[in-house]
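Anyone up for a design puzzle?
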């Protein structure tokens, strides 16, 4: 019976030694050094090089219907625009001259036609 009494003692000593060594190794392990940088906000540019031709799927021409000098704009950036709202005030002198010119050309053409028929 004395033989069976030694095994628990040997087991306890080896277990205690294992725990002590395990804890000693963990304490002795140095932490890993980590370096970091502070992120900066900046634009990212990506350059794409390709050959070929760029063709839009839909063509749209944007141009004014009236030619003239803009005198005033009652709108500010970010304003909500309602239907039929005044967008710009255009110098009417330029438009008046264009209208008068067209009227004079029409009058001249009518009188010339009448004159040519009378001959």
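Challenge accepted. My sequence:
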């Amino acid at each position: 019976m004395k033989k069976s009494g030694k095994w628990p003692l040997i087991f306890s000593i080896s277990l205690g030694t294992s725990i002590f060594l395990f804890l000693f190794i963990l304490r002795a392990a140095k932490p890993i050094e980590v370096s970091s940088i502070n992120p900066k906000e900046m634009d990212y540019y990506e350059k794409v090089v390709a050959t070929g031709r760029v063709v839009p799927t839909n063509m749209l021409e944007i141009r004014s219907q009236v030619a003239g000098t803009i005198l005033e704009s009652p709108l500010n950036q970010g304003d909500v625009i309602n239907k039929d709202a005044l967008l710009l005030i255009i110098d009417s002198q330029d438009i008046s001259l264009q209208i008068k010119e067209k009227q004079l050309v029409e009058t001249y053409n009518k009188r010339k036609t009448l004159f040519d028929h009378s001959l």
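A detail worth pointing out: Residues 91-119 form one domain.
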